[in-house]
Structure formats: structure tokens, C-alpha cells
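Board notes (copied after class):
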Amino acid sequence: TVVLNCDNADSEVVIQAAAEIVGFNYVFGPNVRGRKVTLQTVGKIPREDLMAFLLTVLDVNGLAAVKTDNVYRIITRDGAPQNAVRTVVGRDPAPGPVGGEIVTQVVPLSYLNAADAVTILRPFVAAEGPVSAHRETNILILTDTASNIRRLLDIVKVMDVPVALEEPQIIPL
């Protein structure tokens, strides 16, 4: 188990400590150096939970860890969509741990117009998390943390349903 208590610590020092404990390789992007982070665990956390904790700390501080092979690239969150993040196709969330991992999800829609879905989902996505639509194939493309993608997919499942619009109805109140 591990106890962490870092107040306004340099992000490089925190990531180096986590990398030594968990055992991962990393490279810093040019805009990451000099960033300060604060984190504290109340009591001990299991070593296997440390990576998920670190991803959350990075996300809260506008950073992301994008994994390629066995190396994590520590970059600013707004640059994550332009990097090779894990891509999942379908309406089901990415398998594996839920949390701060950045994921791109390609979601085919059956009934809901993709452009309308973008408008509806925009308030639920961070400014750094793009949401786009491909009109011709009615596909929605989301890039965000795995936990927020899971939430957005739950919203899409509720909205992407057949709606009876064949005949107007008058309902007395």
C-alpha cells in the first residue's frame, strides 16, 4: 500500500514517484514541465490502484497520460485527441479499467441524428474533449476520459431510440 501527500508539487516529481512504485516508463510533452499538482490520500491505497489515482490527478490538472506500447506520454489534456489514443468502435464502453484514461469512441447511431447528438452532449464534455459527427454515416465520435465516455454512452442509449412520429396526437389536459 502507498500513502501520498504532495502539496503544490512539481508534476515531474509526482509522476516519477508513481512510475517507480507502479513500474511504467514515461515521456513528458513540452508543455508539461513546471506544472504543479496537489494530491493526498486519506490512508493507504493499494499499489494496483495508484495508476488510476494518478490518471485522475492528471485529468484534474489539465494533463493526460496517453499509452503507446509500454510508454506513457504525459501531455496536456487538450492535445490528447490528436495523439494515438485507444479507439473503441460501438455502443459499448471500452473494456478494462474505467477512469482517467483518454479514449476515442466511434458510436453508430440508429435513430438520433449525429449532429443533434453533438448538440445534446456538448455540455457534458470538457472543453478539451471533442465531440463530432459524421453526417453521411450518422456516426458520433467522442474523445474523453473512459469514465466520461461511459456516461455519454449511457445518455446516447436513452436518446437513440425509435420515436413514433407518424401521426399527430391530441392529448386533452
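Comment from the instructor: The first helix runs from residue 11 to 22. Strands lie at 5-10, 25-28, 36-40, 63-68, 71-76, 86-89, 102-108, 131-134, 139-145.
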